[in-house]
Design goal:
Layout: E1 2-8, H1 12-27, E2 31-38, H2 45-51, E3 55-57, H3 62-68, E4 73-76, E5 82-83, H4 87-97, E6 102-106, H5 114-117, E7 129-132, H6 133-139, H7 146-150, E8 156-163, H8 165-169
Parallel strand pairs: 1-2, 1-4, 2-3, 6-8
Antiparallel strand pairs: 4-7, 5-8
Helix pairs in contact: 1-2
């Protein structure tokens, strides 16, 4: 099973978009729980998380959250990111056969303009990170956020595409 972790700050509408994609994965038995890690939101993020049945934490430590996760794999994702069709089956197969981290493929439909892609480092969570729980427990340090954990992680590439969170922010 899989636990989803998202960090947010005043991203109520983005949370709704991402959580709606995760419903089918929960029905399929892939997603066991979702943790929304808040960084001082003043909007309705907590209400959205509560309505979706997520764990909502305002004061959190990554290692404690990872230990509380029910899944043996964690999916780190940004609010507003949307996984595209076929991801559930691919992730189920990947976690059954692998013990290493993976990232989703960039969406072919939503790409940054050419000049904004040149010389740009891709943010560590732009295409999510699927990572085994024991690896997270070994790497997590006090005060670390999800981006800090994902930074520098070598990961396999999945075929399933992800529409990155920046698309939702640009609309």
């Amino acid at each position: 099973m899989l636990t989803v972790l998202m960090e947010c700050r005043n991203q109520e509408s983005e949370l709704v978009q991402t959580l709606s994609i995760l419903v089918s994965a929960a029905v399929e038995g892939l997603v066991s729980d979702v943790f929304v890690l808040d960084n001082g939101s003043t909007d309705g993020s907590s209400r959205v998380a509560d309505a979706a049945g997520c764990h909502f934490h305002t004061n959190w430590n990554l290692k404690d959250v990872a230990q509380a996760a029910r899944g043996q794999w964690l999916l780190l994702i940004e609010p507003g990111a949307r996984l595209q069709s076929g991801w559930i089956e691919e992730v189920m197969e990947f976690i059954a056969l692998n013990k290493r981290a993976a990232r989703f493929a960039p969406s072919r439909t939503y790409r940054r303009p050419f000049f904004k892609r040149i010389g740009r480092n891709v943010p560590p969570l732009e295409y999510g990170l699927l990572i085994p729980k024991p690896q997270v427990l070994a790497l997590a340090q006090s005060g670390m956020n999800l981006e800090g954990l994902a930074k520098g992680q070598k990961a396999a590439s999945l075929v399933s595409e992800m529409i990155p969170a920046w698309v939702a922010k640009s609309r």
